[in-house]
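Final report, Chapter 2: Outcomes

The project's central promise was a pipeline that accepts a single protein chain and returns its three-dimensional structure in a standardized token representation, suitable for archiving and comparison. That pipeline is now operational. To close this chapter, we reproduce one record exactly as it appears in the project archive, with the input sequence first and the structure output second.
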Amino acid sequence: MTKNNNTVKAINKNVRSSPRKISLVLDHIRGKKVSEAIRDLDFIRKKISLDVSKTVKSAVANAENNNQYDIDNLYVKEAFVGKSLVMKRFRPRAKGRASPIKKPFSRITIVLSEKKESSNGPKN
């Protein structure tokens, strides 16, 4: 297996939202350029888009500082979410019973890659 050296990753652990809600936001930014993805995340009307935006900006900072990539050539190669811990709480119900409440946490992973500019100009 060959290691791809032109990718940068950022992981946001223990985000207090369910993976199902986060994946709706991640579907919008997958495959886009970083500048477009951050702009789109600012206009999405979901609360979790702030945490996703923070993760994308962290990945951009990793690419710029650690690998000296050009920010203009970066795009979101992968954006996925996985389960993390689940807090279990109980709610009192009628007749002395209790019903469980699950409060899920998630782990957001953003992988950026650098697009190589092709030197093939328009053919005349």
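Archive annotation: The mean pLDDT is 89.
This record, like all others produced under the grant, will remain available to the consortium after the project formally closes.
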